[in-house]
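Researcher: I'd like a candidate sequence for this fold, 214 residues long. If you have to choose between options at a position, lean toward the conservative one.
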């Protein structure tokens, strides 16, 4: 019984590591779409606040190594940190920052290179106050319980915050349920490059492009 439980946990760790690896591959593809992260403004929604979770990624600079002994540390800002290391100007939006002290937020910024923005997704348009980004990303579908998230209303709020020729990359973990239809996104003005139902090399992700003629 004990050995079976250990095997189950190990398999979960391996699956989680594979999901992380697929997400990172999608982020590197996004980097190609943007012509590089250098100087680009990136918003990572639900970026994670676990700055004490060290050794999450073995090679955080390149994102090529996954520490499968640490995959349970769900909230480490590994994607935001990778993009920051590659020259991106990264803003991390997370409700976990709300009760943090100013010193905690400053320490997070120094340790990760990511600018923390406290807030909840329902009020993200008010909090961003007209800021625009070259790309808006999220892992685990905006770090939010998917059954409670109104995707259409959320994307309507994020559309004005997306620069022309900007991209979205929202990664969905296995088992997460997302109710969103392609037509609604296209009516907003997004070109849907991949949705959660597709597996075309982009992984289980929603990838959008806000074109100049939108």
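Model: Candidate sequence:
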């Amino acid at each position: 019984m004990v050995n079976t439980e250990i095997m189950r946990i190990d398999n979960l760790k391996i699956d989680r590591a594979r999901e992380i690896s697929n997400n990172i591959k999608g982020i590197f593809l996004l980097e190609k779409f943007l012509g590089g992260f250098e100087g680009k403004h990136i918003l990572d929604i639900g970026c994670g606040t676990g700055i004490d979770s060290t050794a999450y990624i073995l090679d955080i600079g390149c994102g090529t190594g996954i520490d499968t002994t640490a995959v349970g540390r769900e909230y480490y800002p590994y994607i935001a940190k990778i993009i920051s290391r590659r020259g991106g100007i990264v803003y991390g939006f997370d409700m976990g920052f709300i009760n943090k002290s100013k010193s905690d937020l400053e320490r997070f910024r120094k340790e990760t290179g990511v600018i923390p923005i406290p807030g909840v997704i329902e009020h993200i348009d008010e909090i961003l106050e007209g800021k625009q980004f070259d790309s808006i990303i999220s892992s685990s579908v905006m770090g939010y319980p998917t059954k409670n998230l109104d995707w259409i209303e959320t994307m309507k709020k994020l559309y004005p915050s997306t620069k022309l020729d900007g991209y979205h990359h929202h990664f969905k973990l296995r088992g997460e349920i997302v109710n969103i239809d392609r037509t609604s996104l296209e009516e907003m003005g997004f070109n849907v490059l991949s949705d959660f139902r597709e597996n075309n090399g982009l992984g289980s992700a929603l990838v959008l492009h806000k074109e100049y003629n939108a």
